[in-house]
């Protein structure tokens, strides 16, 4: 059963609202059927990735953003499991280090872009600079931007300029052969609470939980506003956002995999065809191999 991507696609019309997107939708599938369908998509992704690699004309950048415990890591793991690791690059961005703070905020993300023929996955991304930094504007001070030497100066114009920079950045990537798709894993606050409790109860998952997670959870409404603003301002035809229901992890993985497959298919890539003289040379080499004693 193919995902209707229109269910998750954020139209670039400025009317986006998170409340219009479900966290629980499961495509009218049960978990067993969903897992079976996922295996089929993995086979399709394998062929599509090989074509991308062979064509060597485009790359694909997949961006994952979400609240804690929404399932980014497991979603990436399941998408990756259908791909050849040699053709993929996964980056998980943390707090910028001292070298990264010596450059503009896009610098480290540009460095991590996938080469032609490859798939790049960014677990968190340049969007942190209009998400966590918007909830905590004091973090911007570490960037030492001359015109913004005081947190009180960070105003609406500042964020609008960042949205514009991001739109321009992604447009530049697409125009130069890097296709960009962005996923927001839309988990409910109740489901996040349950997953946090599971991490506390399961000793093997204790390492995934910290007191800081609860501090950020207390700012849930501010984060939802930041996500809504960022997605509304930066979902474009060239680099669309998809809001994926994330309360059922098995369905999240299926929906993402199907959208990735659909995106690669739409690229309409082909295996390279050798020129006539090289094809003729292959026949000569073939005969040499067949004539070996």
UniProtKB/TrEMBL annotation:
Lineage, top ranks: Bacteria, Pseudomonadati, Bacteroidota, Sphingobacteriia, Sphingobacteriales
One Pfam short name: PPK2
Organism of origin: Pedobacter polaris
Alphabetically ordered keywords of this record: Kinase, Transferase
TM region positions: none
Record-linked Gene3D superfamilies: P-loop containing nucleotide triphosphate hydrolases (3.40.50.300)
Recorded family membership: Belongs to the polyphosphate kinase 2 (PPK2) family. Class I subfamily.
The Polyphosphate kinase-2-related domain, residue ranges: 29-270
Protein name per the record: Polyphosphate kinase 2 family protein
Domain of life: Bacteria
GO biological process, one term: polyphosphate metabolic process
GO molecular function ontology, one term from the record: polyphosphate kinase activity
